[in-house]
Amino acid sequence: MNPLLEIQQHMTRRHFLGTTGIGMGSLAMAGLLGESTVAAPSLTASAHFTPRAKRIIYIHLAGSPPQHDLFDPKPALKELDGQPCPDSIFEQERFAFIKGHPKILASPYQFQQHGQSGTELSELLPNLSGIADDLTVVRSMHTDEFNHAPAQLFLLTGSPRFGRPSMGSWLTWGLGSEAHDLPGFVVLVSGGKAPSAGKSTWGSGFLPSVHQGVQCRTGPDPVLYLNDPHGMDRSMRRLSLDALRDLNEVALDHHGDPETRTRIDQFELAFKMQVSVPDVMDIAGERPGILEMYGAEAGGGSFANNCLLARRLSERGVRFVQLFDWGWDTHGTGTHDDIITQLPMKCSQVDRPIAALIMDLKQRGMLEDTLVIVSGEFGRTAMNEERNGSKFLGRDHHPHCFSIVMAGGGMKPGLTYGRTDDMGYGVVENPVHVHDLQATVLHAMGLHHERFTYRYQGRDFRLTDVHGKVVNDLFA
Amino acid sequence: MLVLSLMALFPVPLGAETPVSFDREIRPLLAARCILCHGNADESRRAGLRLDTREGLYGPLRDGGRVVVPGASGSSDLYRRVSSKDPGVRMPPADEGHEALSSEEIALLHRWIEEGATWEPHWAWVAPRKPSVPTGASHPIDAFIERQLQHHGLSAASRASRATLLRRASLDLIGLPPTPEEVDAFVQDESPGAWDRQVQRLLDSPHFGERWARVWLDHARYADSRGYEKDADRTIWPWRDWVIDAFNEDIPFDQFTIQQVAGDLLPEAADDQVLATAFHRNTMTNDEGGTDDEEFRVAAIVDRTNTTMQTWMGLTIGCAQCHDHPSDPFSQREYYGLFAMLNQTQDADRTDEHPVLAVLSRPDRVLLADAETDRDQAEQTLEAKLRTLATEQPVVMAPKGEPRDHYWIDDETPLGADLNQMTGEPWPWRDGDDAIQAISGSRIHIGTATGPTVVRQQYFESAWLPLVLQDGDRLVAHAWLDPENPPAQIMLQFHRPGDWEHRVFWGEDLNPWGHLGTTSRHRVGDLPPTGEWVRLELDPAVVGLEPGDAIDGWAFTQAGGTVAWDAAGVVRSQAFDVGPLHSLNSFELTQRSLSEPLIPADIMDVIRTPEDQRQPSDQQRLDRWYLRNVQIESRAALADELAAIDSVDQHIADINARSSPVPVMRALDPGMTRTTHVLNRGSFLDPGAEVEPHVPALLHSLPPSTVADRLALAEWLVSRDNPLTARVHANRTWERLFGRGLVETLEDFGTQGDRPTHPELLDWLAVEFIDRDWSHKELCRLIVTSEAYQRSSVPMPSARDIDPENRWLSHAPRVRLEAEAVRDQALAVSGLLDSTLHGPPVFPDQPAGLWQVTYDNRDWPQGPDRERHRRGLYTFWRRSSPYPSMTTFDAPSREVCTVRRIQTNTPLQALVTLNDPVYVEAAKALADRMVAEGGDELANRVKRGFRLVLGRSPSPGELAVLIELAHEASHQYQEMPSETEAMLAQWPGVVPSSVDPEDLAALVVVANVLLNLDETLTRG
User: How far apart are alpha carbons A40 and A14 in whole angstroms?
Assistant: First the structure.
């Protein structure tokens, strides 16, 4: 089909109601619209170049885990443990909570090299250590923000302020969804609390709202208002939808508004989702060995369950699965947020499920085109926070370096990328800024981050704002 | 000349005869293809070339060539470069992936240059002038539209049916559907002016203000929470009510603007004008630990700058925060010029939201007005009685003789005493009783400390009639120590004007004041016995007081325990004059003798004036003050009247205590003002050159010798010279009534935005709006009384081919209802709607567990007493977790200004209207109405439901589908009694005897379908 004609028809439908003008990015001219656009305004473009990954599972450890204790060993700190940190560092720094002159905190945990690659990981992550050769560890991440909400927004929307589309929205807008009876962007939350920046971390910003993440919850109502009301069973719903469709068809014949056609289709999709969503959320049918592998339990709402759900959603063509897990903000004000009690507990909750997810994707042949990312929103300090003289060990927020882990999606397995200084304070080799990560993720999905734009309020917006460069070294 | 006049008539190109218009055809081409590299922004400009200015277009190139030579395309580099076949020469550059211009575009440039390359400014930078209205239509709007229809070979659709039209206008103007009775009244009104009367009715409706406030709240990014991580609650709903009232009262839009941007700076600003400034206190504040307040204060000013320009002028200048605007002629320096005008307010991202204005709720405002009337009446009654009283009474002398107690504090604190200044607590009077009888009079005062050694006291100073010590006086007071809860210490303290350093105590030394062993902290001895009155008596010298000293204050202090006090004053043997309490003459003498009199200054001024030089009005003021406040006899006579005033004063104080502290704008005090700098790359940590407040050079300037403050900015926004504000508001209003703006990009009137489809109509509307005194209601009336508005939404066959987007308005648009209206309509047609106006935000049902908020365990209130059926406008708006069904229907999060909601059509919306309990409850209520109002016949019940929802009657075909559904559903419910039970039992109300349960359940299914019809969700 002639792409320009297609655009015109697309525009026509939108304009019929005098509704909206979606600025078409430059991609729109490159040939587009292979798939159904029932779900309404999306770019649904072919990629700029051959993608390495078709889908993403983004695991965000909200609050930010301490890289010194998990991914980035700093043996030099052993000598300095408990001593005041160097003045040069202390004087030019703004801290979120540290007051006075902070003291060095060496990690109480052992690191070892693992696998052929010799990737060094903490003893707190035995299962991930077991698949070290499948992992790509980046130790040289850095960000501009050091408060949770702005840093989460910066990482996931490209701006520390509210109002920009999230990564998942950008990708479903740009690439559409391969799931026919599920949303293209699904969010799963564990740990008892939503991330600090709230729903904006999966918001669609100025992109059409159909591209915002849909939060699926465990329990009987996994998508809001999914269930028919009491007293209306499935056959009654079908009956009523048939009548609704008949009446809407009468209206469509009368005025010929294409939005009515779309609405008829959306009611049918909703009807399908009433089955498909509970179906995908119901893990009881998984083989027992699989549940065991993840540590998931049917009916539960744990992080392990969410990892398994992520695989199930990905299998069904969901473009972007976003997991949030709360509880990583390890300041050390008590056992609930220190690195001696809380951190090992959190690690034990996520280590096995993440490793299981990666192994499961691999055994199903999905790992090569599924990009798994595990990150916090910033790093943590090399110093003990000691808030109000706390005797518990913990680390304050730190923007200058942090570590993330990736797997699959064309990443180079077994690679440890970037280097921080001996204190784990700043990056000394191959820095990867948050915008660089975003550019790299888009690249993996076949999108050029500078050409992937959306025109809004007179400006072409990008996920990477006006920054970012693809880190080609990360790709296999 | 003929050609030129044609141009004025037809704002669209008519063919080869019409000269190319630079503004209409060439500038958009340059803007789309060239400006990003050859535009306003210094940093990104290539080859020093700019095509966005006249100078750039006609000036020389670096290499000596010319960009555009009028009449000579061959000498014009612009043409040469875009038409070149050489990839190394061609613009835009192929090696950067840019496509060449199309042959049509190149031909257009060629023709423009050959025709003389006339330059025109961007249309939106030139203030609108009212064009003459074309002839041939009775309504000016139709005249402009008709000309375009003719030009495009379109014919107008017929008029909409009256039922459709009234539903359309009701939803557009008040956001609620009409009742079937309102439709009937309109349909049956055959007299001339029927439509005008309906329009008037809707404009007069109190719901008009709610509907247009809804639009304004998106611009103002109104929310009931502060945003960012903590997203704590914010009390700013009184401002939302102000907006509702402003639309209902039709405050002229220029005043509406000035009050919101700078109401606090208006001369003698009324509370409501200050409240209006809360518009810009809807910016987010960040209460997260460790944040830099200045960073987020700056973020708020940036937001205000962007929101102001976006809301009033349709300009997107946010990019100039970091660098010169790439396409519109605004520099970064000019951005900070506007920023500077907004940068002088007191608010600073503080947790306490300072500064705030205490605002009363509507009901309390009425109560307060009534109370103030009561107070006036009580004053008048008092005044009337005062006229009957005399200022002079026989003076009583206390004679010299045996030492006698003369109490200064007994059942009352001394006149004029300023009580408990630090705490504001009332004096702890209590009637004496059998347990503790008063020593003198009837009352005692009693204090209980909150802990064993916690210090508490009751104290006063500034008594009008001080206790002046005489020779031989001893100070006396009575104390009663609770045996169950004894204090560790009791203390008496005395105040002379200026110092409290006169203390005496019994018991432990637990107070830090003064120095032990001196007159500032003298210990008498151990605590007296408990459970009985003890008399405390001392020589004033012990506390450093001597004859002639005027004691104007006294403190009763304790550490721990419970202590009662009574009867405090002096033991005196000297004769003395108690005349001041009886005779004004005596009072005046006393006051004149005091070195530091404490009565109100204006009264003291009269007393100091010799009697024969006083104005009669001053004398009268003194007389009345004395009678009312001092003289024992008159105060006894006035006891009832004074008590009445006290009572109403207490009532007023109670009302005021219920006020809400609403964040507002207040200017910094002179001398505290901030210096504004350009912030490099927009970072508050990287200030650059200093900037004076100023407006962009391209636009109209401020009046000469105006101080460039916020008020100047507000007045500049609504100046008649402003090319944008009136156009932007006319366009915004048009968009709400026609589904799409005359300028489709409501948010961008700059060169990157869309051009108006009907530029002359837009200008005519804008100027007419100003000429009609900026009346929003008149603007609405003007638009909805046009024929174009009243057309059917069914397109003519020709329109489907020629103008499928309906740009030329041959028919009315179909527009999906906005989020709030979807919900409001369901509540209204089912009869559930609570149409109360105003008030604090409400918490209708939402699924549990959505309000997962970090650092806070608050949850969405669930309970029976909530106002669940108020209009959506009043639903609590939490930025981090907006009401889910609203966001599903495209409501923004209100974190930043949104001038246009992008509409979507999604399966999640279907799930909301099918299954959200609010809509299921509405379906049940609608089914009840169908039974109650539709009679016994199923067909009539269904017809009634259909009319309630859509205003019109169903066609036979539609009716048949619904009746079939009702039959089939009823049949199924007969087979499944438990489902019937489940459907009906979840809502209050009993099944009426006139209907079988399964039939009622089936009607709920029918009602659910009615509420989900495309036509229901759409205003057609």
Answer: 9
CB-CB under 8 Å, A19 with B1012: no
Within B132-263, residue ranges assigned H as helices are: 140-151, 162-173, 180-188, 194-204, 206-219, 237-248, 253-262
How far does CA A310 lie from the centroid of its chain?
11
Residues whose CB falls within 8 Å of the CB of residue A215, separated by 6 or more in sequence, listed in order = A186, A187, A188, A189, A199, A202, A223, A224
Least confident of A22-31, B326-335, B880-889, B928-937: A22-31
Chain A residues closer than 8 Å to B800 by CB = 256
Q: CA A411, CA A425: separation in Å to the nearest integer?
A: 26
Supply the DSSP symbol for B567.
E
Check if A275 contacts B (Cβ < 8 Å). no
- What pTM, to 2 d.p., does this model score? 0.77
Q: How sure is the predictor about A9, in pLDDT bands with cuts at 50, 70 and 90?
A: very low
Q: Which residues of B are less than 8 Å from A29 in CB distance?
A: 99
What pLDDT shows up at residue B864?
A: 63
- B-facing residues of A in 59-98 (CB < 8 A) are 94-97
Q: Which residues of A touch B890 (CB under 8 A)?
A: 209
Using a CB–CB cutoff of 8 Å, tell me whether A113 touches chain B: no
Output the DSSP codes for A69-87.
HHT---TTHHHHTTSBPPH
Q: Give CA–CA dist B169/B205, Å, rounded.
A: 12
pLDDT digits (tens, 9 = 90+) for B819-871: 999 999 999 999 999 999 999 999 998 887 776 554 555 677 776 667 889 99
Question: Are A250 and B955 in contact (CB < 8 Å)?
Answer: yes
Contacts of B636 (CB under 8 A, 6+ apart): none
Sign of the torsion angle spanned by Cα atoms B217, B218, B221, B225: positive
Q: What is the DSSP letter of B51?
A: S
- What pLDDT was estimated at residue A5? 33
Which residue of B lies nearest to A233 if distances are taken between CA atoms?
B979
pLDDT at residue A440, as a whole number: 97
Give the largest CA-CA distance in chain B: 125
Nearest to A17 among B816, B916, B976 (CB): B816
Q: Are B791 and B158 in contact (CB under 8 A)?
A: yes
ipTM, two decimals, is: 0.78
- Determine whether the interchain pair A209/B884 forms a contact, defined as Cβ–Cβ distance below 8 Å: no
B903 chain-A contacts, CB cut-off 8 A = 17, 19-20
Return d(Cα B898, Cα B876) in angstroms, integer. 18
Helical residues (DSSP H) of A17-125, grouped into ranges: 67-70, 77-80, 87-91
A475 and chain B in contact, CB less than 8 A: no
Which residue would you say has higher pLDDT here, A11 or B766? B766
Q: Three-state SS string across B239-298, please?
A: HHHHHHHHHHCCCCHHHHHHHHHHHHHCCCCCHHHHHHHHHHHHCCCCCCCCCCHHHHHH
Query: CB–CB of B299 and A39 under 8 A?
Result: no
How close, in Å, is residue B149 to chain A by CA atoms?
17
Chain A / chain B CB contacts < 8 angstroms: 279
Average pLDDT of the residues in B538-557: 95
User: What are the structure tokens assigned to A57, written together?
Assistant: 């599972």
Residue-averaged pLDDT of chain A: 85
Q: What is the pLDDT of residue A464?
A: 92
Residues of A in contact with B986 (CB under 8 A): 229-231
For residue B389, CA distances in Å to B133, B415, B617 come to: 75, 20, 17
DSSP-derived pairing of the beta strands A320-326 and A185-190: parallel
Give A-chain residues touching B1001 at CB under 8 angstroms: 231
* Cβ-Cβ contacts under 8 Å for A402 (sequence gap 6 or more): A64, A67, A141, A142, A143, A375, A376, A378, A379, A380
Subunit contact B814:A197, Cβ cutoff 8 A? no
Residue pair B1011/A246 in contact (Cβ under 8 Å)? The answer is: no
